[in-house]
Amino acid sequence: MLRFVRQRVTASLISLVGLIVLVFFLSRLTGDPTNLFLPIDASDQMREQFRQLHGLNDPLIVQFGRYVWDLLHLDFGESIRQARPAINVVLQAFVWTFQLAVITMVLVTLAAVVCGSLAAFNAGGLFDRFVSLLSLIGAAAPDFWVAIVAITLLAVKLSWLPTSGTGTLWHWIMPIGVLFIRPFGLILQVVRGSMLSTLGSAYVKTARAKGVRTKSIIFVHTLRNALLPVITVIGDQAASLLNGAVVVETIFGFPGVGKLMIDSILQRDFNVILAAIMVTALAIFVMNILIDLGYALLDPRIRY
Amino acid sequence: MLSTEIVGTPEAIAVPRGTAATRVLRMLYRDKLALCAGIFLLIVITCALFGPYLLNDIATRPNLRARNAPPFSLAHGWLAVLGADALGRPLLARIIVASQNTMAVACGAVACSALVGAVLGLVAGYSRGRGGQIIMRLADIIMSFPSLLLAVIVLYMLAPSVGNLIVVLAITRIPVYLRTTRAEVLEIRERMFVQAATVMGASRMRIVLRHILPIVIPTIVTIATLDFAFVMLAESSLSFLGIGIQPPQITWGLMVSQGRSYLANAWWLAFWPGLAIILTTLSLNLLSNWMRVVLDPVQRWRLEMRKTEA
């Protein structure tokens, strides 16, 4: 077990280092933030001072060395835009995205497992077809389009919900609803498929022959075994939820890490980009490891 | 290509007549949903190929009298049947013209990623050397991070153009093909006919290209169809965020984003291009589902049997 965790952590760290190197040099290539932050009529001396202050004068390799050295001391540098430690800016935004992602994933999982099991139990039935159609459309709809159609309908025409921002519980409904659609369809299909194959297995037939109630066959006997492949997909989807979060946060003005990243890229706030990437990547790695350990909990046959 | 010969049909079942192509078409005709999807995609492809040459003038000429003209009226010509945008340009014409850029990016990205991914997958799967390991680790790095964010960063560095968009989207999608191909190759290379070919003295190149590749191709084609939808959505998202294709060029995602400012009084500006995206991706998904069955020799058998019975 420990050996497995150690292996995974090393592999993750290597990917993380690769990512940092890639993003560090790519982001520096986007250009000099000096012109963006100083007024047009700033003197050469002021520009020089700005570059000196943020260490933009040195050769790239020296900048990189300094960045890594600071990083080893857990110093993520300073945000040029907000003039406070980059890591604080990122963590503040990350908490928002984290909440959004966790709430969405919990709802998606619950809904998909219940609907998927029911669809599989009555395969080919009306409910099954309806749910399959729903998941097909969900996989095809671009989230930004769903988001603005929802805003037009629910916020502008009917004024039931606020258009954007945060504050009350009502503000959460549309972002979660939009993020919900795609993973719901995908996970539902996996639950359905996995349930179908488990329902065909011998021990389920035995349970039926014994006269066990339908409800407990689905939710006690089958579901536990059918959940294994589902967990993998949930992990994948949670990571790609961040893709959706970028779009959804931008549209709904949600102060999460996706919006922060887009803003920082546009404004060349390098330290914030890097810190944001590290925090998200770390979160994804931790989640992946937890998922692998979750296998062992669900399936006693798996040992690391 | 479709590896019909590999299956071999037992004498007991009536052998379906005609060439492989007509058999496939007949199977497509049986599945009405897939047929609709196929026809719709054909229309989209035709629009993408010829639309800009026929309609570019109309789609870019402003007409102030038709500003935000509502849909379902023929007052401003049949091309304005879906309404007109803020400068009075007919939406239907613009959607048709925009299909070229949307399709070009998606086709290019899918073709590049499938090609590179398949080649690397064949290498990683067939040679057990260190090279394969390095390729897989690189794929892990790409997979470990949300692709849209990576695309945003890279695109911001390069100037956004059709070519760069294709490269960026292709890079983020390579691991999908790479992993699938490698997994298939690892399994196929242990089969008897590969060993037989080795014993007969076939070169490694010949084994990979003539014996392994034909079996892998159907899988790659199926994934590519599904991935086409994904890439289209990704491109639209990027255009929507303002880091994809830049105006005056248009794509469907860009049209949605431009229509966003007029949501309150002219919903059709953002609605129709979005619907075009949905219908296209939906068709691709349906077609990919159908292809998964048809290109799989084991399952296609059942389809053909059902067909001859009917």
From TrEMBL, chain A:
<dbReference type="InterPro" id="IPR000515">
    <property type="entry name" value="MetI-like"/>
</dbReference>
<keyword id="KW-1003">Cell membrane</keyword>
<feature type="transmembrane region" description="Helical">
    <location>
        <begin position="98"/>
        <end position="121"/>
    </location>
</feature>
<feature type="transmembrane region" description="Helical">
    <location>
        <begin position="133"/>
        <end position="156"/>
    </location>
</feature>
<keyword id="KW-0812">Transmembrane</keyword>
<comment type="similarity">
    <text>Belongs to the binding-protein-dependent transport system permease family.</text>
</comment>
<feature type="transmembrane region" description="Helical">
    <location>
        <begin position="168"/>
        <end position="191"/>
    </location>
</feature>
<dbReference type="Pfam" id="PF00528">
    <property type="entry name" value="BPD_transp_1"/>
</dbReference>
<keyword id="KW-0813">Transport</keyword>
<protein>
    <submittedName>
        <fullName>Peptide/nickel transport system permease protein</fullName>
    </submittedName>
</protein>
<keyword id="KW-0472">Membrane</keyword>
<dbReference type="GO" id="GO:0055085">
    <property type="term" value="P:transmembrane transport"/>
</dbReference>
<feature type="transmembrane region" description="Helical">
    <location>
        <begin position="9"/>
        <end position="29"/>
    </location>
</feature>
<dbReference type="GO" id="GO:0005886">
    <property type="term" value="C:plasma membrane"/>
</dbReference>
<keyword id="KW-1133">Transmembrane helix</keyword>
<feature type="transmembrane region" description="Helical">
    <location>
        <begin position="270"/>
        <end position="291"/>
    </location>
</feature>
<feature type="domain" description="ABC transmembrane type-1">
    <location>
        <begin position="94"/>
        <end position="291"/>
    </location>
</feature>
<dbReference type="InterPro" id="IPR035906">
    <property type="entry name" value="MetI-like_sf"/>
</dbReference>
Automatic annotation (TrEMBL), chain B:
<keyword id="KW-0813">Transport</keyword>
<feature type="transmembrane region" description="Helical">
    <location>
        <begin position="33"/>
        <end position="55"/>
    </location>
</feature>
<keyword id="KW-0812">Transmembrane</keyword>
<dbReference type="GO" id="GO:0005886">
    <property type="term" value="C:plasma membrane"/>
</dbReference>
<keyword id="KW-1003">Cell membrane</keyword>
<comment type="similarity">
    <text>Belongs to the binding-protein-dependent transport system permease family.</text>
</comment>
<dbReference type="InterPro" id="IPR050366">
    <property type="entry name" value="BP-dependent_transpt_permease"/>
</dbReference>
<feature type="domain" description="ABC transmembrane type-1">
    <location>
        <begin position="99"/>
        <end position="288"/>
    </location>
</feature>
<dbReference type="InterPro" id="IPR035906">
    <property type="entry name" value="MetI-like_sf"/>
</dbReference>
<dbReference type="GO" id="GO:0015031">
    <property type="term" value="P:protein transport"/>
</dbReference>
<feature type="transmembrane region" description="Helical">
    <location>
        <begin position="266"/>
        <end position="287"/>
    </location>
</feature>
<dbReference type="Pfam" id="PF00528">
    <property type="entry name" value="BPD_transp_1"/>
</dbReference>
<keyword id="KW-0571">Peptide transport</keyword>
<keyword id="KW-1133">Transmembrane helix</keyword>
<dbReference type="InterPro" id="IPR000515">
    <property type="entry name" value="MetI-like"/>
</dbReference>
<dbReference type="Pfam" id="PF12911">
    <property type="entry name" value="OppC_N"/>
</dbReference>
<feature type="transmembrane region" description="Helical">
    <location>
        <begin position="147"/>
        <end position="172"/>
    </location>
</feature>
<protein>
    <submittedName>
        <fullName>Peptide/nickel transport system permease protein</fullName>
    </submittedName>
</protein>
<dbReference type="GO" id="GO:0055085">
    <property type="term" value="P:transmembrane transport"/>
</dbReference>
<feature type="transmembrane region" description="Helical">
    <location>
        <begin position="104"/>
        <end position="127"/>
    </location>
</feature>
<feature type="transmembrane region" description="Helical">
    <location>
        <begin position="75"/>
        <end position="92"/>
    </location>
</feature>
<dbReference type="InterPro" id="IPR025966">
    <property type="entry name" value="OppC_N"/>
</dbReference>
